[in-house]
Amino acid sequence: MSASAGKTVGKIFAGDINEILIRERRGCSVELGALLVSEFAGMKILFEAVNVAYGSIVTLNECIDIAWRFSEKKEYRLHEEERKFYNVIHARPLAVINENGFSKPKLIPPMFGSVREISDSDLNFMMRENDDSVAIGSIRSGSSQLNTPACLKREAFTHHVLVAAATGRGKSNLVKVMLWNLMSNNKVGMLILDPHNEYYGVRGVGLKDHPDANKMLVYYSMKNSCVNQTLKINLESLKPHHFYGVIYNLTDPQRDAMEIYYHAHGKKWLFRLLADDKPPGDNKINLATFTALKRKLESVLGLRFDAAANKFDNKLNIFVDFGGESTVADITSKVTCGSKVVVDTSDVGGETELLIGNILADEIFKFNRNAKDEGKLDSFASVCIVLEEAPRVLSETEGDNAFTRIAREGRKFKVGLIAITQLVSVIPRDILANMNTKIIMGNELSTERRILIESAAQDLSKNDHIIASLDKGELIVSSIFTPFALPVKVPLFEDYIKNFMKPKQQFTIDVPG
Amino acid sequence: MRFAHLADCHLGANRAAVLRELEAKAFHEAMRRCVEAKVDFILIAGDLFHVNIPDMTVVNGAAKILREVADAGVPVYVVYGSHDFSPNQTAIIDVFESAGLLRKVTRAKVVDGKIKLEYTVDKRTGVKIAGLSARKGGLEQEYFKRLDADATGQEGFKIFMFHSAISEYKPLRLREMSSIPLSHLPRGYSYYAAGHVHQRAEIHEREYGLIVYPGVLFASSPIDLEMQGNGVKPGFYIVDFDGEVKNVSFQELDLCSVVNVEVDVSNLNSQQALTLVLDKLEKLDVKGKIVMVKIHGKLAGGRVSDVSSSVIVDAQVKRGALHVYVNRNQLSAVENSNVKLGSLSVQAVEAEIFKLNIGKVNISDSKLQGEEGIQTAQSLLALLRQSPLPNESKTDYEARLKRDALKILGVEG
């Protein structure tokens, strides 16, 4: 926390209920986004600096003249410089802090009232980390970090979280910190689709280093190392709808062809379709449709049937006709019991990765929906699915899939998304509206900022340039579960976890019989 | 060179004499074929016995067979299974080892928290065998995590024996079974002799040699028998090798036929259901066969117990069936309805209850069915409510009640 926490920064001299103007004390240098407090009559109002501007009691033309003199004349001095020239802090009220927590501000502090910097003691009523909340960083005042943790309610994760940031602003770091803090919480299961293989910690530190990783973390990968389960999914686990909304340009005749095969062959539909060299002779499926569909499926599944050898030539070794029968059920069982499952999809193409995610998301959604129908939903953990580059499956162009269904209905069945994106603009408005927590990181594109501001849970209309100026690791959390838009600083994951990692224990074990 | 690979014999699993006999016969036949095929050694990958200290009859039978195998000069190598495991090495397996009938291949030492396996070397072939025993409830998973037994680059034919399911290859019906990920298996062995999953499988995985589950030798549960009824044969493997695996050959043990019969009795009453089951079985040839009967559905009337297992079993045994198993786990009956009382009198409530439930009573006498039956029941209830008359002794009271009850039932006393 800043050494100046609690220090008076100025006096209020103008403004209204939406914004007050503060004459900054000389030498204070209040930052954009700083949290300020005005105390009066036993009450505290929390403000956020949304702009810092120049102020003077002389006219603009005189200021221009003075600037010229300073630049041209060596020994020019101003008379009563401190009185005449000052900074003006524009501050927006965030909340009234009282004994019970926070309330919406409905009055303004007295004219000429003092305003000071925030201190940790002002935030004693902030949510602390426990089973029902998860720390994602620390409260930030400008660029300074307070000691008060910024926590999100556990419930927020099933009401969907959008993480929006331009590239290089620390999205992955934020998600790692969040996942680390969720690791021990068995009331929230996580499915983490990891297209860059960055969360587990195969090389370097990661979730595997968490003290509870042994019992809470499972890692699936195509590669066969000594730390993972090999990702294998039996062809009989796939149904036609798993391909919809994730495979690019699947036409209606192609969908119909898949349904025809499914109707005719049941669980073996995909095997049959891939093994056949032409469509069935009943003319329900056109040859061109069949050929194009088969080519798409072979590409996304990495499979080609070798009729001579009567077996599949399997490039990816993920979708198999032998083994992998219980993978989807296993993963579903683990996440619905509160485990964290990381699925490494770094070695596959986009469509394959999305197909894998769609299959798993669909099964989890179905499981929870059935549990609710049977009145058993409360026996299971909430589930959250981490989805990178979310517009690939949430945009309007590809149609419905398990992710869009979860985005629209998942809340009812305790299934949520953490959707990570650089481009909020391509996500449909109704889906965006369902994302009740928006974690906003730095973004230079004004169009993207505008959409985020318009869809935020709080009024961020004055925060446009704050968002534009967010540094790496700085973010704003706007959520229906937070009393105001929280300015947060996320620590660097590698430094953060040093506080938690225990020295490796030496186990004493009996030699097994 | 050649060896045999068996698993999941589960000797002592079956209580029925006929099944126990078949279980012992399967083991005897398997050992006989191994000796006949001149195998160099035999691997039993866990659960030779169903419990760690079985019934002495079972132990005696197994000891005799293993003695014959030992006398024929064929060593038998084993690991504990999840059933015949002993945490302090006091299982019957250990007694057999002390007697020289078999040998556990699970020698290991712990170095810096890692389990390093030590090879047992077969004297005749020089094959190196290492193994990890199972524990109850899949607790051996912790051992696998700490295993340091990579054999990559080592000379010679090496076998790794274990008794666990592999997560990536678990059948769907066994999805709840604890298992180890494939990546926890040590690499570099020429052959992986597995057990525990009662379903035969030959698994070819890059970075590993051949991983084989032989399945059960006979059957340890009704599910095993049902699978045989579906055409899945029990047996074991004979493997030919010479530096590497040359040929694997599955030896079926077809000791008896199993017939699966499934009957849906939904919307029938219990009597009709029983009749349907018996009729269906009547059309089948059950002589000398094990018959697995699965009855499912929701009965319209009567109780589940009225679809009598003993009647079904007796009927088939009379027709020459070797053994009959009746599964009624998926059979249910209509529950008693709740009676809405409102402001009815006690007698009216009783009448309502009788009316709702009389259909569920399985009785052939018409006097006790329908309206007449309801009246009979009400009359009996009224009689039983009567208190003793003044000065009436207990003996006289009981005699009177009995006499009047028989009169109501129309039965001569």
CATH architecture verdict of the largest domain in chain A: 3-Layer(aba) Sandwich
Percent helix of chain B: 25-40%
The rough form of chain B would be described as: elongated
Number of domains of chain A: 3
**Radius of gyration of chain A (Å):** 28 Å
CATH architecture of the largest domain in chain B: 4-Layer Sandwich
Number of helices of chain A: 15
Instruction: Tell me the number of structural domains of chain B.
Output: 3
Largest interface, chains and sizes: A-B, 27 and 37 residues
Could you give the order of strands across the largest sheet of chain A?
Answer: 9-8-23-22-21-10-20-19-11-18-12-13
- Provide the β-strand percentage band of chain A: 25-35%
How much helicity do the residues of chain A have? 25-40%
Mean pLDDT of chain B, rounded to whole units?
Answer: 89
Fill in the CATH topology of the largest domain in chain B: Purple Acid Phosphatase, chain A, domain 2
Q: Please give the order of strands in the largest beta sheet of chain B.
A: 4-3-2-1-15-16
CATH topology name of the largest domain in chain A, in short, is Rossmann fold
Write the layout of secondary structure elements.
The complex is a heterodimer of chains A (513) and B (413).
Chain A: E1 8-15, E2 20-24, E3 35-40, E4 43-56, H1 60-72, H2 81-84, E5 85-98, E6 101-103, E7 114-117, E8 133-141, E9 144-153, E10 161-164, H3 171-182, E11 188-194, H4 213-216, E12 217-221, E13 229-230, E14 233-234, H5 252-265, H6 269-275, H7 287-301, E15 303-306, E16 311-314, E17 319-320, H8 327-336, E18 340-344, H9 350-373, E19 382-387, H10 391-394, H11 402-409, E20 415-421, H12 429-434, E21 437-441, H13 446-454, H14 464-468, E22 474-479, E23 486-489, H15 493-496
Parallel strand pairs in A: 10-20, 10-21, 11-18, 11-19, 12-13, 12-18, 14-17, 19-20
Antiparallel strand pairs in A: 1-2, 1-7, 2-5, 3-4, 3-7, 4-5, 5-6, 8-9, 8-23, 15-16, 21-22, 22-23
Helix pairs in contact in A: 5-6, 8-9
Chain B: E1 2-6, H1 17-36, E2 41-44, H2 56-71, E3 76-78, H3 92-98, E4 103-104, E5 108-111, E6 114-117, E7 120-121, E8 128-132, H4 141-145, E9 158-163, E10 165-166, E11 179-180, E12 191-195, E13 201-204, E14 210-213, H5 222-229, E15 235-241, E16 245-252, E17 257-264, H6 270-282, E18 289-299, H7 309-318, E19 323-327, E20 331-333, H8 346-357, H9 370-385, H10 394-408
Parallel strand pairs in B: 1-2, 2-3, 3-4, 8-9, 9-12, 10-11, 12-14, 17-18, 18-19, 18-20
Antiparallel strand pairs in B: 1-15, 5-6, 7-8, 13-14, 15-16
